[in-house]
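Let us practice reading a record.
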Amino acid sequence: MKSLIALFAMTASITNASEYCAQSPVEALKRLSNAYKSRNIDKSLNAIDFNAWAKSASNIGGVKITPHELKEEYKKNLENGGFPIYTGLSCKLNQKQNGSAVVVYEACSFETGGTYKTNYTAIKSKCGWKIGSLYMPNKALK
């Protein structure tokens, strides 16, 4: 019986991992975007590699924050209505190898004619691809 329970737990953990890990960098960003659109905090958090994001924040911005602190702050922000707005937005995604990282480029157009461009870093994890940093570097709304 114990071995059956262990097998079930292991299978459930593999299923959950594949649900949150994408097969490509572009798919990783699509999963994060879909989690935002459905306002699903758990899926949003699981689409991000907080270890990589915290390391990136430290290396680029000099911000010392642990992955756990970053995840908790991000979760708090989402809980307080911090989801991006996708209404009237049409986006195209592209990816490019940049040294050891893969950068996913998001170029969006608003129905009103404005544009928005953002770059994300995608990280290959044990189970597939996740987003490793958000909004760095960021090109402002035009």
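A brief commentary: The beta strands are 89-98, 101-110, 115-124, 129-133, 138-139.
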